[in-house]
Please model this.
Amino acid sequence: MFKTLDDIGSGNRVLVRLDLNSPVEDGIVRDNRRFERHARTVRELVETGNRVVVMAHQGRPGRDSFISLDQHADLLAEYVETPVAFVDDVHGEAAIEAIRSLGAGEVLLLENVRMCDDELPEKTPAEHAESAFVRALAPEFDCYVNDAYSAAHRAHASLVGFPLVLPAYAGRVMEAEYEANTSIASREFDGPVTMVLGGAKATDVIDVMSALDEAIDHYLLGGIVGELFLRAAGYDVGYDVGDTELYDHQWADNEARIRELLAERGDRIHLPFDLAYERDDARAEVPVADVKKDQPLLDVGSLTVGRYGNVIEDSAAVFVKGALGVFEDERFADGTVGILESIASTDCFSVIGGGDTSRAIELYGLDEEYFSHVSIAGGAYVRALTGQSLPAVDALRDSECDASGV
Model:
């Protein structure tokens, strides 16, 4: 296991990696729960008199969301409740000067780390540790904290290079996400374990189902993957209509595995009983046996929500990956929101994962306190569920730097 903030003393120079990647609309960075979550780690370090320097990323080169982090500093400051200075440099002279001038209890945010050429190449920790980026910054710090669990599936320099050259610790988000998202394998539950699976990335969902095998008692399917499984079961759904390109290529890639899973685990896989579509600008529902797919199907139906809710009510643990419908449109939020409400009203251990699903909680005013854990991770959550390694977590766990002076 890795060390945490509990193992860090006071008065240190701490380099912290957060994931502040956020939606950008017309050049404006939108607030999201990542700022609030990560603020706890920064605030704890500030309150113990540490000098805190934050690294984070925004977007990818070539995309509209690839912008400076100057706005992020102000958003983070609101939650940390202390000023967050910003320097438009990652590891050059301006960054080093700003780092050295930082006082105890002060916070500095460096420029978008993906503007550094050394950051994005997928390399080994040893290779990243030798980069100009890591070699320039590491001597300025006593220790490194990684709180960016949602980026932990990336082998980028800011995530895996520093633990090789600095004492390394997990922040509070990293600690909580790791514990919750590995609980299927690490915990025993006194009753059935249910997984709700949806969203647009059917291959991810099928990978999760294949990896978990006997660990799950019930799979409740919706979204794109729900239609693909219904197609394999002989219903007239699960293919593209109009200009959609969501189903056919995923069917071609996964048909054999879908049919195999149905054959092996058909008694544990629950498929939608009815589906919703748009008719005269309103929501309409139809039993799956009566569907003639000539337009997009946008949600599971009310009968499905009720029956899935009955399964959830009898579960000891429920894990969610992906939305069951196009919940951004209130007319087609019944499936996703209905299932979340069922989980919230049930006394079970629950983990809500995937960026879209967690966003639905916020969008429809559900209280996070009714769930055991609401993950802010996407790809890392899937990899944790499928038992794949997370390079940044491995780097923390494998860090052997001497922490005696911290």
The first strand starts at residue 13 and ends at 17. Residues 5-174+389-398 form a domain with the Rossmann fold fold (CATH 3.40.50.1260). DSSP finds 16 helices and 17 strands in the chain.
